[in-house]
Specification:
Layout: E1 4-17, E2 20-33, E3 37-41, H1 48-55, E4 63-68, E5 79-82, H2 94-104, H3 109-122, H4 138-150, E6 156-160, H5 168-185, E7 188-193, H6 196-202, E8 205-210, E9 215-221, H7 234-256
Bound molecules: adenosine-5'-triphosphate.
């Protein structure tokens, strides 16, 4: 059996809203091997962001067991989180944004310079180092957000709808780019998306969630993820169509309930 890097067992999360209990996640089981790319897909409100916030160490109010490399989520450290709006500080340059996390971790200036230069070079961003986020395209901003995560040398990369504000072509370019980075780093990655094609293109393991409360309804092993020229292939379209019908079935059931 593969070494399970991320292991979630019977995870439930409740929120309190106006004195009422809102169950956001119920009995979620999920595991990811070291170096695997997992994708979560599901309808709005099924608890995807709640799940990511638990994994990122931002929400400790849960029941069940959550282990990342054998330890409960702590935030910072070995886990990097990339959000939908990229989270870049508009008043700082690309360089300043990228080194921020290293400065917060009190790395020495020589080490910061060396690490940041290497990552910016690798991601093709070095020539943009002095620009501000507003002077970048959406795709470039997303690459800066990825650079900012990679300089911290995380062991787990969490991404919450990271490409949703990009146009379709840029989105595909960044998906290709993420695969290239993954080939080099073999970083364990869990990505949330609403986009079925993105899930099939990137996810070696795809978790389909349903809502009310959020559960994992289906787990799909997707061996074709990451293969070249995948998007036009029949198997790719078939897998997209399978997931689409599955998600629609869930929606229809929910509407009829
Ligand atoms: N702070 C909160 N207080 C009360 N209820 C909350 C809170 N945050 C989330 N919820 C509820 O928990 C459920 C899951 O929310 P969550 O944001 O995790 O879903 P999601 O799948 O990420 O949604 P989306 O795809 O729309 O971003 C929803 O029913 C939501 O209304």
């Amino acid at each position: 059996m593969k070494d399970s890097y991320l292991s979630i067992r019977s995870l439930s999360v409740d929120y309190q809203h106006k004195g009422e209990r809102v169950r956001a996640l119920e009995s979620v089981d999920l595991s990811l091997a070291r170096g695997q790319r997992g994708v979560i897909i599901g309808p709005s409100g099924c608890g995807k962001s709640t799940l990511i916030s638990v994994l990122a160490g931002l929400n400790a109010h849960y029941s069940g067991q959550v282990l990342i490399d054998g330890n409960p989520p702590q935030g910072g450290g070995d886990t990097a989180l990339i959000l939908q709006d990229f989270g870049l500080l508009p008043w700082k340059t690309v360089w300043e944004n990228v080194i921020l996390g290293l400065q917060l971790r009190k790395k020495n200036p020589g080490q910061i310079k060396k690490t940041a230069e290497a990552v910016l070079e690798k991601l093709g961003l070095f020539s943009l180092a002095k620009r501000y986020p507003a002077q970048l395209s959406g795709g470039q901003r997303q690459r800066v957000a990825i650079a900012r995560a990679l300089v911290l040398e995380p062991k787990l990369l969490l991404m919450d709808e990271p490409f949703s504000s990009l146009d379709a072509l840029t989105r595909e370019e960044i998906q290709d780019f993420l695969l290239e980075i993954w080939e080099e780093t073999r970083l364990s990655t869990l990505l949330i998306t609403h986009n079925i094609e993105e899930a099939v293109f990137l996810g070696q393991k795809i978790f389909v969630m349903s809502s009310g409360p959020g559960r994992i309804q289906e787990e799909v092993e997707n061996t074709m993820a990451g293969e070249g020229h995948l998007r036009g292939r029949v198997q790719f379209l078939e897998m997209c169509s399978y997931l689409r019908s599955f998600l629609h079935r869930r929606e229809n059931n929910a509407a009829g309930a």
